[in-house]
């Protein structure tokens, strides 16, 4: 079984804290993309989705390239 190294770097800027949670912006360093979030749960979901998409793409490339 192959091990896939799918490390991601996120820069998180917290701009506010309202209703007991954080608001701010995430920068996905490898893709140079940024997105705003309205809660800590949304921030974690966005980071998880980005990491999962990278793992799926890495698996696809490994399957295509043998």
Number of domains: 1
Biggest sheet details: 3 strands, antiparallel
Strand content range: 25-35%
Helix run count? 1
The helix/strand class is alpha+beta
Q: What is the topology, as strand order, of the major beta sheet? A: 1-2-3
* Dominant shape: elongated
Give the strand tally.
3
| Rg, alpha carbons | 15 Å
Distance between the termini: 13 Å
| Pattern of helices and strands | EEEH
Q: Which regions are unreliable across 5 or more consecutive residues at pLDDT < 50?
A: none
What's the mean pLDDT score? 84
Helix content bin: 25-40%
Describe this protein's structure.
The protein is an alpha+beta fold and 66 residues long. It has one domain. It contains 1 helix and 3 strands, in the order E-E-E-H. It has one helix at 40-65, and strands at 10-18, 21-28, 33-37. A 3-stranded antiparallel beta sheet has the order 1-2-3, covered by helices on one side. A hairpin with a 4-residue loop joins strand 2 (21-28) and strand 3.
